[in-house]
């Protein structure tokens, strides 16, 4: 029996309806959500990315998001889409965006959904 149980894939966490509602409310009602509205065409309303080439931001570490945005601003990361998107963000804007995206539910229901992270482990 132990062999059988250990052969099963672990269940991925599923976000509750309350978490999803909270994320939608944040997007439409908070200052950070309003600031994030220009991010949704690529990263999605829920922060999970609209296509595999756009990284998942939902549930990402706050400090990591801030660090990466600063890298796009100062040229350490070179991306023709991100550079103009972040160029005019203030440090407070960046903190608000990181607070917003880091608190969104991850919505990982299937392990293959992690495929949206391919190509983004080392950044671009």
Give me the strand/helix succession.
Answer: HHHHHHH
The residue-averaged pLDDT reads 77
Global shape: globular
What's the end-to-end separation, in Å? 45 Å
Q: What composes the largest sheet? A: none
Radius of gyration: 16 Å
Strand content: under 5%
| Class per helix and strand makeup | mainly alpha
How many helical stretches? 7
Number of strands: 0
User: What percentage of residues falls in helices of 4 or more residues?
Assistant: 40-55%
Low-confidence stretches: none
Protein topology:
Blueprint: H1 2-7, H2 17-29, H3 31-36, H4 40-43, H5 62-74, H6 82-86, H7 91-103
Helix pairs in contact: 5-7
Structure description:
α5 crosses α7. 48% of the residues lie in helices and 0% in strands. The chain is mainly alpha-helical and 124 residues long. The chain has 7 helices and no strands.
């Amino acid at each position: 029996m132990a062999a059988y149980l250990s052969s099963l894939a672990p269940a991925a966490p599923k976000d509750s309806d309350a978490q999803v509602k909270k994320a939608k409310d944040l997007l439409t009602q908070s200052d950070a959500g309003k600031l994030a509205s220009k991010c949704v065409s690529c990263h999605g309303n829920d922060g999970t990315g609209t296509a595999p080439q756009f990284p998942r931001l939902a549930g990402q570490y706050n400090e990591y998001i801030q660090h990466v945005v600063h890298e796009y601003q100062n040229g350490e990361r070179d991306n023709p889409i991100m550079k103009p998107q972040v160029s005019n963000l203030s440090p407070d804007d960046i903190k608000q965006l990181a607070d917003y995206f880091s608190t969104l539910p991850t919505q990982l229901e299937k392990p293959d959904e992690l495929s949206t992270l391919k190509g983004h482990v080392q950044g671009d």
